[in-house]
Amino acid sequence: MSDTAMASLGNADAVDRARAGARSLRRLTVAERVKYLTNLRAIVLRRREEIIDRIQKDTGKSRSDALISEIFGVLDNLAWLEKNAPRYLKERKVHTPIALMGKTSWLWFEPLGTILIISPWNYPFYQAMVPIAVALVTGNTVVYKPSEWTPLEGLIEDLMAEAQAPPNWVVVAYGDGKVGADLIDRKPDKIMFTGSTRTGRKILQQAAQYMIPVDLELGGKDPMIVFEDVDIQRAAAGAAWGGLTTTGQSCTSVERIYVQESIYDAFKAALVKEVERMKQSVDSDGDADIGAMTTDFQVKIVAKQVEDARAKGAQILTGTGWDGVSRLIPPMVVDQMRDDMLLLKEETFGPVLPLLKFRTEDEVIRLANDSEYGLTASVWSKDLDRARRVSRALVTGGVSINNVMATEANPALPFGGTKNSGLGRYKGEHGLHAFCNIKSVLVDKDSAKIEANWYPYTKEKYRIFTEMMVNLFSGGVVNFVKFGLSGMKLESYSKKASKKGRG
Ligand code: NAD
């Protein structure tokens, strides 16, 4: 049997197999690990069309969506990691305070061991490759559990084998949520979960029993805030892409569009025009804007939310011909929204663009923050001071100013949410460190010296220590000189006291 087939054989011992690979990976320097990422980048670049075929087969997304969000995204993150991981994972000297004179302090970024990566179905290639690459470069082996809806069966193992990675560095475990839960019971050293808030909560509870650290990248209901001074055409084009890329099945999709009253009608007309000229199919040549939905259960959620909105008085301005069943849901611009509609309360995860009107800055901040989610947002205004002010007031993990879904496009920016959108950050320097045991190290070269804080504790030591502390923290040059003198006194007393003992 080939190593590749071995790597995906059964799930029961997947964590054990990945753990067995941890020692060989851990021994490598970061530069040596980076070579596997470089191999992967070349392989993905060369085999891109075949990979896009596989992504389209499992997801039904448009070919350009697969190219731009998945293939380009993976290549960009690999290139960033190759260039930056050695710098961010290098041991680092940090400041040592004067009270610890003669010592040096360090941070070492060490692997955690084996990381369980559990992924959703909306970006099956990107959500596999990017966390796997971060894990490998930080020296961790991986158990990867893809979504049962989009397994890309055999592809990840195949790419890893071609990149010369030993089969127990990345072990793929196929199956549903039950398989994911069983893998957690095998006590991996960390769980990186991307998926729904409902499942995230279950994973957090299960992991708590074993004290396994967890990163949760969950759902969103991301607002786009459009002030009256914007270029309306550009903002409408941004809204269309941000709401409809991957047929709206992105965690950071634009799901609520707040438009300032004075430009509301003009923006609505521009957005409708933009949406009406879009081409929709599961194409084979890149000539379609949006593709299909990936699963029937998500189609049902969209149908329920749209029906609820319609029943409560919303006006559907585009895509009115949808039968409520087809996976090719036409993009829908929705007007006349009301607060109690499901379209505003729950994550939609489909090609729906609800439009809402606001008057003032304060009002829109309140409306945008009025959500159980807090993943990302976008703020559009020519007045950058205002855009920054509003961005600061938003309770989200990221904000794009005058752009949309742009923070996740930069591999240097950490990614993650607030509130029910998740815990922790991945990508960027913070994301690299999130996959590390950050070991704090203090080196004392003077092994002969007795420390002032060691025993014996005596009345006299108490007095001198207090004098030294008051001088150190009272500020000013004179006190600093006095601190030096009392420090010497304390040192010499400690030496004597330790020889003499308590009596
Ligand atoms: P999901 O929660 O249903 O499933 C995600 C993964 O978890 C799948 O692999 C599934 O098999 C597994 N799983 C299910 N139950 C489990 C359990 N009890 N224990 C362990 N694993 C279990 O999510 P989904 O429907 O696949 O994905 C859509 C959701 O993902 C949306 O809410 C979307 O917003 C979110 N998402 C978030 C991000 C982000 O980075 N924040 C990115 C993409 C998608």
Helix-strand blueprint:
Layout: H1 3-7, H2 14-26, H3 30-46, H4 48-59, H5 63-88, E1 92-94, E2 103-111, E3 114-118, H6 126-137, E4 141-145, H7 155-162, E5 170-172, H8 177-185, E6 190-194, H9 197-210, E7 214-217, E8 222-226, H10 232-244, E9 254-260, H11 264-276, H12 296-311, E10 315-316, E11 332-335, H13 342-345, E12 352-358, H14 361-369, E13 373-374, E14 376-380, H15 384-393, E15 398-401, E16 418-419, E17 422-423, H16 428-434, E18 436-444, H17 459-473, H18 477-500
Parallel strand pairs: 3-4, 3-6, 4-5, 6-7, 8-9, 8-14, 9-12, 11-12, 14-15
Antiparallel strand pairs: 1-2, 2-18, 7-17, 10-11, 13-16
Residues 118-122, 145, 147-148, 176-177, 180-181, 194-196, 199, 202-203, 217-220, 251, 347, 349, 375, 422 line the site of nicotinamide-adenine-dinucleotide.
Keyword list:
alpha/beta; 7-stranded mixed sheet; 18 helices; disordered N terminus
Describe this entry's structure for a reader.
This protein is an alpha/beta fold and 503 residues long. The chain is built from 18 helices and 18 strands. It has helices at residues 3-7, 14-26, 30-46, 48-59, 63-88, 126-137, 155-162, 177-185, 197-210, 232-244, 264-276, 296-311, 342-345, 361-369, 384-393, 428-434, 459-473, 477-500; strands at 92-94, 103-111, 114-118, 141-145, 170-172, 190-194, 214-217, 222-226, 254-260, 315-316, 332-335, 352-358, 373-374, 376-380, 398-401, 418-419, 422-423, 436-444. The strands form 4 sheets. A 7-stranded mixed sheet has the order 10-11-12-9-8-14-15, sandwiched between helices. A 6-stranded mixed sheet has the order 5-4-3-6-7-17, with helices on both faces. Strands 1-2-18 form a 3-stranded antiparallel sheet. Helix 5 (63-88) packs parallel to helix 6, helix 10 (232-244) crosses helix 11 (264-276) and helix 17 (459-473) packs antiparallel against helix 18. It is globular. The termini are far apart. The structure holds nicotinamide-adenine-dinucleotide.
